[in-house]
Amino acid sequence: MVKKKLRIATIGQGFMGKAHSNAFRQAKHFFDLPFELELALLCGRDQQSLETMAARWGWESTSTDWREAVSRWDIDVIDIAAPNNLHTPIALAAAAAGKMIWCEKPLANTIEDSARMVEAARGLRTLVWFNYRRVPAIAFARQLVEQDRIGTPYHYRATYLQEWGNDPTRPPNWKTDLAQAGSGVLGDLLCHSIDTALYLNGPITEVSAIQKTFAQNRAIDDATLALARFGNGSVGSFEATRYATGAKNRNSFELHGSNGAVRFDLEDLNRLEFTDATGPRNLQGPRSILVTGPDHPYWSNFWKPAHIIGYEHTFIATVADFLFALDRGEPFEPDFGTAHRVQLVLDAVARAAASGSAATV
Amino acid sequence: MVKKKLRIATIGQGFMGKAHSNAFRQAKHFFDLPFELELALLCGRDQQSLETMAARWGWESTSTDWREAVSRWDIDVIDIAAPNNLHTPIALAAAAAGKMIWCEKPLANTIEDSARMVEAARGLRTLVWFNYRRVPAIAFARQLVEQDRIGTPYHYRATYLQEWGNDPTRPPNWKTDLAQAGSGVLGDLLCHSIDTALYLNGPITEVSAIQKTFAQNRAIDDATLALARFGNGSVGSFEATRYATGAKNRNSFELHGSNGAVRFDLEDLNRLEFTDATGPRNLQGPRSILVTGPDHPYWSNFWKPAHIIGYEHTFIATVADFLFALDRGEPFEPDFGTAHRVQLVLDAVARAAASGSAATV
Amino acid sequence: MVKKKLRIATIGQGFMGKAHSNAFRQAKHFFDLPFELELALLCGRDQQSLETMAARWGWESTSTDWREAVSRWDIDVIDIAAPNNLHTPIALAAAAAGKMIWCEKPLANTIEDSARMVEAARGLRTLVWFNYRRVPAIAFARQLVEQDRIGTPYHYRATYLQEWGNDPTRPPNWKTDLAQAGSGVLGDLLCHSIDTALYLNGPITEVSAIQKTFAQNRAIDDATLALARFGNGSVGSFEATRYATGAKNRNSFELHGSNGAVRFDLEDLNRLEFTDATGPRNLQGPRSILVTGPDHPYWSNFWKPAHIIGYEHTFIATVADFLFALDRGEPFEPDFGTAHRVQLVLDAVARAAASGSAATV
Amino acid sequence: MVKKKLRIATIGQGFMGKAHSNAFRQAKHFFDLPFELELALLCGRDQQSLETMAARWGWESTSTDWREAVSRWDIDVIDIAAPNNLHTPIALAAAAAGKMIWCEKPLANTIEDSARMVEAARGLRTLVWFNYRRVPAIAFARQLVEQDRIGTPYHYRATYLQEWGNDPTRPPNWKTDLAQAGSGVLGDLLCHSIDTALYLNGPITEVSAIQKTFAQNRAIDDATLALARFGNGSVGSFEATRYATGAKNRNSFELHGSNGAVRFDLEDLNRLEFTDATGPRNLQGPRSILVTGPDHPYWSNFWKPAHIIGYEHTFIATVADFLFALDRGEPFEPDFGTAHRVQLVLDAVARAAASGSAATV
């Protein structure tokens, strides 16, 4: 059987360009994909490193002009891994050209841009790289919610803690430049936490927030903290920061309900802590489940039980799921619509922080 | 040498009455006290159980009228472990009688009452049972702050999570009755977290907050969440709840600064997690310190290294420290003034939650 | 009701003397005891510190000659907390005087002495301070075994790891003197591990072992390691050492069976890890149970759920259980017979280490 | 620059065949390799699944006869991932053909076979897939040993615990067949633990051991336990089992020395616990180092700090290191010689278990 091909142009040659390249190379090794992925074009700003990267990952061609990706007839997918401020112009151009669009998070730097992207992409297949939904432990947490093992939700609590904001040895980066990044941790880290929260606990209706910039001469938020009310009656707290000394990549959440609770930390991505509050009381306690067994999400695709996976596999599973949905003509999430709902919350958080008052989402 | 005696009347025959009785019996066994404590009078509402309790702990006499404690000339200390709404009338009467006053937290149910108590007790020795300051690990955290091992503080994060709010087998209790308790978790749990925060990270200047009542027909807050700005430029988050399924008594905090970080959880009260961010980068990581060694606070008083202590020892160390300060004529904390500063923060939290806007402390 | 009195003489003024004194003072506060304990006589070698200790803990009298304890008609219980080499002579004298005998572990320095003690004490009430049986988590582990929640046992694994063997700041102590201690970690630490193993997993039939002395000029074992076969078909490993850098008091064990597993570490004495292997496979994982709830052993006697206890409470519960058994005329364990069975295993371990061959117990 | 090519034939189409295929595909993406790897030939017993696997991973050709791999002139490397009993015949044939040989562990089923393989491969480049040496945390542990951060070693303690021995849903497998596997956990799991021990703590000189078969009608060891003396004066314990309910893949070790200690568990492969015993005593405690930073082994090759890796990366790093050594003409470990030294220990363990007496390595 000859497989249909999907020719990809990735725009971005940094960390995400590498993570995406890897996913495109690896997906077929772990999943029986309905499409063959071809790494057609890699775009970026530095020609020399583009060539190195293309050679290493097997990209067919390179360009320092992302418009080439949009204009080439042989490209099916525009994969946006460029700095945040380029998401909107690239996506709008790609939509105008009728391409499928895969875009890094956050979707856009303003809620207006985000809305324009959703509108422009109507009818097109889109994907937003909220890759953490495909952490097996998080997909498993979602199953537990669906199976009513959490019950009536009471509390959601999330942090995304990093520590590099304060590191003088770290070279300057677009992530701390307001013009390119649009925000600090709000769009970089909090957006992941919000996506996971919406995925596991449903819509957020109202938020209060504070933001803080610790560094001199920086215009973006080094830290954003928020309190939230969810549509389902539960309450939540969120904290994202680059100044949490000792926390490397602590993307964590906890959800407490009437039947049970779950707790996760990305630094231990192969585990989910689960408390079952329905059994004998003297046996209750948070259990540390290694989410690497034959009955866990995605695991049959990877290795034997308990032979753990890493960060990169979340991208692999994301692209695989997209392709299966595409093949079946089914909807896929997270798409632009999903990401726009995240943006609406981020926007409310920013408004709440600016005003010092609760803001409706 | 004949020791001076201090004759105590405790008002309260519940959990705290037991914890205080134990502290009064045990303090001399672990500390070389300058005073001899005499358990003179135990007051409570139920005569029969008062007698049982008095027999067990060796109280000389009992009464169902707390006024007897205040009026008896042979009583030196009025120790208030009664429901919250009685703190103010008892303390005012005790102050009028010139007694030393030891009072459970929260100091009062309103900021006005709290202020009256401070005023009335001016010139008298007071103690408020924020016993967790004397957890060896928390006292040690304070040492680390003082030694600049945390450095410039960035983030403070605290939770006080319990799960019994939802337990149908639990008998009704004054803690969920607004008239007696004054509030729900605000005065019961959050006040502990705020005291520890002020102790370790200094004054709070502004808060945002939300409160939530989950139970039908309950008038108090089952959960209170707050964001805070500290006078030292750091930001913080607080969460107290009785609906955190899976969390038994998770009174936890974390403080991140430029030099390091500390993390604590009362469920593991003999440990403090410390990250030193000043050493070789490849060796950095949160270390789990068993705060039970010869160089740790209070440890020489208790057992051999690593033979851990429990909850009750925090009361023992509190009363011992009070007596040493009394003997030396030195100030003691936490006293009514300390507790009033906690009340000011709680009051701002309640105002912020009611208004949906940030409130100044 | 006037309670019967039990007048105690403790021989030993060190760490164990303190732990026992505390237990005798505290037992009535937490348990409704059928006997009143009187601290009649404290014996030790140093008169001055005996007096200090007697004053602090309320001992009626002191003596530097333990024979006084045995000869006094008003003493009911001889409590032996002296160096190991004195256990046998004191116990034999106490038995000859018809006293009840409470003895620290190990029971004796040789298997012959141990057998003589058992023989001499026949018909007398005895107790051996294997206090860890009354750690609530260990008593709970025993319940799980009895309820078949472990199932057919496969593996038992225990360590008792300390690090002070290598500490040059530590003053010399009888524990490293062969004449007094009889052995190093064999009698000091391994004996605890063996008692717990027999309690939870039944008789040991055969052992292999190695011993090691790291320190120059020391005649006792700094480390003892053993492999074991249990009568129930499971196999086990044991390790006791004073040279485990980083381990303060890691008295840990793990038991794996066909239905589940338990794991314990004395450094976290309020917790038991339990794996239930009988439920849905995707939900299986070791759960961390805080053994501090209303349905857990001894908990109703101590504090509210999750208000943790310390090391000392294991002695309190031991003496309480002894008194209840005495009152009811029921047998109590661990008694001399129990301890002698531990000695038989220790003796086999020593023989196996000396011979380099497996030894039958 | 045109890279030299290395054409590989892998014999084995199971779990290891997949892990190797992945490594061969991925190595160039993370390392700037001096050779281009070509997946020339995949051999196995089942033609249909061979074709599926070859299509998925891009193998050029397939064969059900491993002799084809040895006889083809265009094959440079024979990679043996077949059942244990085939290691020796394939390796001897490959050596006779002058090929490079990469072989799964254990090297052979008898010490005589292992010795013959070493002899036959003299002068050839060999690799044995003790892949765990390239876990960044283990490589880092080795660095700590070399930097004297452990100091004089006292204790080494290792377990390799799995639980599937007792799983009735698991299909029969050559791993429990004596004829093919040669042994049970001895060659399957303990050999990994021994290799790591030799790597980190040097030669083992003497062992005592017991073995146990729990399953009816099984001829191999379900569990092997050993005690060891190391050449450097330290002592150790080892345990490997397939009956450790609750343990999925607990390949763990701990090394205690005069200056510090390290502790590792494969279920948390991105972490190393390190205790520094040389700093201020009150700050000492095991620190949990996320071995995912810019100064940690292999990390610059993979992802950003704290974006964790999985099991598969250990194979990737192994093949990369082999190629670098090959290119530079330097020795590589672990090779056949390394693996033979592991076999010598395994042989002594088996002898000790059979005889019930200590055996010299």
Layout of helices and strands, plus pairs?
The structure is a homotetramer of 361-residue chains.
Chain A: E1 4-11, H1 15-30, E2 35-43, H2 47-57, E3 61-63, H3 66-71, E4 77-80, H4 87-96, E5 100-103, H5 111-120, E6 126-128, H6 136-146, E7 153-161, H7 178-181, H8 185-201, E8 204-212, E9 223-230, E10 235-241, E11 250-257, E12 260-265, E13 271-276, E14 287-290, H9 313-328, H10 336-355, E15 359-360
Parallel strand pairs in A: 1-2, 1-4, 2-3, 4-5, 5-6, 7-10
Antiparallel strand pairs in A: 7-11, 8-9, 8-15, 9-10, 11-12, 12-13, 13-14
Protein architecture, described:
Four copies of one chain form a homotetramer. Chain A is α/β, with parallel strands linked by helices. Chain A folds into two domains: 4-131, NAD(P)-binding Rossmann-like Domain (Rossmann fold); 135-309 and 330-360, Dihydrodipicolinate Reductase, domain 2. The first copy, chain A, has helices spanning 15-30, 47-57, 66-71, 87-96, 111-120, 136-146, 178-181, 185-201, 313-328, 336-355, and strands spanning 4-11, 35-43, 61-63, 77-80, 100-103, 126-128, 153-161, 204-212, 223-230, 235-241, 250-257, 260-265, 271-276, 287-290, 359-360. In chain A, the strands form two sheets. Chain A has a nine-stranded mixed beta sheet. In chain A, strands 3-2-1-4-5-6 form a six-stranded parallel beta sheet, sandwiched between helices. In chain A, helix 1 (15-30) crosses helix 9, helix 6 (136-146) runs parallel beside helix 8 and helix 8 packs across helix 10. Chain A starts with a strand and ends with a strand. The model of chain A has no long low-confidence stretch (mean pLDDT 97). The A-B interface holds A 154-155, 157, 159, 163, 166, 208-210, 212, 214, 223, 225-227, 229, 233, 235, 237, 239, 241, 243-247, 256-261, 263, 275, 277, 284-286, 356-358 and B 154-155, 157, 159, 163, 166, 208-210, 212, 214, 223, 225-227, 229, 233, 235, 237, 239, 241, 243-247, 256-261, 263, 275, 277, 284-286, 356-358.
